[in-house]
Batch of 2 targets.
Target 1
Amino acid sequence: MKILTKTIIAVLAASITAGTASADNDKNTDAYIKLYDNGGKHPRIVSITFPGNANILDMYNSIYGHGAVIENPWVAYRIYMDNRQSLDLYVKATPRLELDITGFYTTSEQLNKGYGCDVLWAGKSISAGSFRGWQNRKPVTIDSVGTRRQTVIDNRTIEVFDKDWIFNGHPIQMRQLYSVKPDSRELSVEIQLDGYKEEDLFATGIQKLETGNEGFIEPDGIAASWGDNIPDKNHKELIERVGLGIKVAPENIVDIVEDELNYIIIVKPDKNGKIKYHVLSCGNREEKGFATMNEWFEYVRMYKIK
């Protein structure tokens, strides 16, 4: 009898739903979760749930791409299946769908053929609009939960559900919806919180790029950054220039702050328990993209949410 690896054990311990998610047949958006397997098949599934005491790395490594993936013609994001639940960014040279081919792991041959790639080194930052708790004047990850679930709702929407997230000593039920449209580069985010208390605060924002970062954050909940980074530390020759932006709904804004890594917007739920914001991004890999920092900043400031 073969010994099961930690990754396989983690998958067996999780609740998995296979099959095809309901879709609106839009050929310009896609969303998926794929299981990691040594045979390279990486089958699509609709939903996966892990118990709260599952090993973080086992969860992370059980999913091909380390989490659910969502894309439109310009960009793609993956939402890490771990306590960070960070958003990582993929930018395309040519507007199209391609993640089912590259899976965020673009080969040198594919790069030479004009495919896009992972362009962001998230590290310990808030990345591109990741959601966090806010404690002791810093963003905190989603560490203690009853269960963690990722679900493909349709080919435009991913749901992340954290059951019994223990925050400030009490459980919160948190539902995160990440959505893209076929005619816009924006990522729409809606956080629904149940069980929170009036004094609970949360945070989102965008990271400062590793090299040559320039950026701004404004009281009306708009922030943008521009700079270079090396997303794959094994290929230091691949330097990516990236632009990030975020716009938070006015009714959710509490305050704005900066730290060493991030432009942070402190937020709280509206009267319906919701927090809403929109993430924008670009990269110099785009053949018809943004040529300068000022062009990107103007775009973020003037962008009208659709």
Note: The helical segments are 6-13, 56-62, 99-102, 108-112, 293-302.
Target 2
Amino acid sequence: MNYKLYRQGDFSVSNWSGGTTTQLAISPEDAKYADREFIWRLSSATCDLDESDFTDLPDYNRVLAVLHGEVVLAHEGDRSVKLKPLEYDYFDGAQKTKSYGRCTDYNLMTRKGYRGTLEVIELTEKEQALEVAPALARGLFCTGGYAVVSFDGNSLMVGDGEQLVIEDCPKAEIKISGEGAIIHTEVSAPAPAQQAEPDTEGAYPYEGKSDFALGMMLSFADLRWVEVLSKKLKKLWCDEELSRRLKQIQKIYLTYGILLAGLLGILYTVLLWYPEKTTLAGCLCILWFVIWLFVVSPLLYMSVAPKPIWKHIKNIDRLSPKEIEIEIERNGSNERLEKLLKKYKNVGIYEYDEEE
């Protein structure tokens, strides 16, 4: 295990068409970005123009997280996504991508064949333990404060804007605490060649279905009693991006807050001006509930979900091995998925990359 803490004096700054780029770390360490021969690269860039065209990087996959400001990324022929601070997006470097808005971002570029992931961890004074799998390289970038990072008998303080890189990182426990946030990146070596592919027929059960219809389905799925009535909903799997967006509105009970506000508004207005018309108040409340259930809530879910929504919903029985591992990690032991994962491994599938 080798590690290095990169500070301001270690960074190199260059210009790109939309602003400046600060290279935080690159592998191999003597690689030049312009030669496009690196394995992975960590950088922070500014978007100083209202509209910018991203550099074409056909041999690399990318993850971009926003540090400051807001930006809309438009991936030509695919989708668009709006990112606020500490939100991120995965995309293919070969895509024609345009940004709208001014921001400072954080980038992980990984050569195709290698696997790169990114997650944002909010720091607290209480120490958090990260159980990490073996990786070719692991990065910890601090933003908005400081972080104390402990691993393999080492303890380091990573300041705001500093980048810690751990290479040849085995399975280990990393402990972090502090304030602000840590952007945790991981680069894994190429998996052995595939010997077979899982059956993906029927993997996307709602392919081509309208975003509004799927927004309605997602809003219904949030109503626990509807899930009991529909066994089909239990067989659906939402990918990491869609799950993250849904949690943003579910954790603050936004849809239920809108429902309650409407009901209270109706009762207050009718009973204040027409106290004798209790039947009218009841009818209006029922009407508002129907409108909320079939229009307002679906529109809210549709607005936050990545587009097209059907690309982010899969049949749980048609997940790739990596998606199965994510689902098991997210929700704990799942006997059906563990059997399916074992089946994939038995036929020589070690990694399966699907189209985003």
Note: The first strand starts at residue 2 and ends at 6.
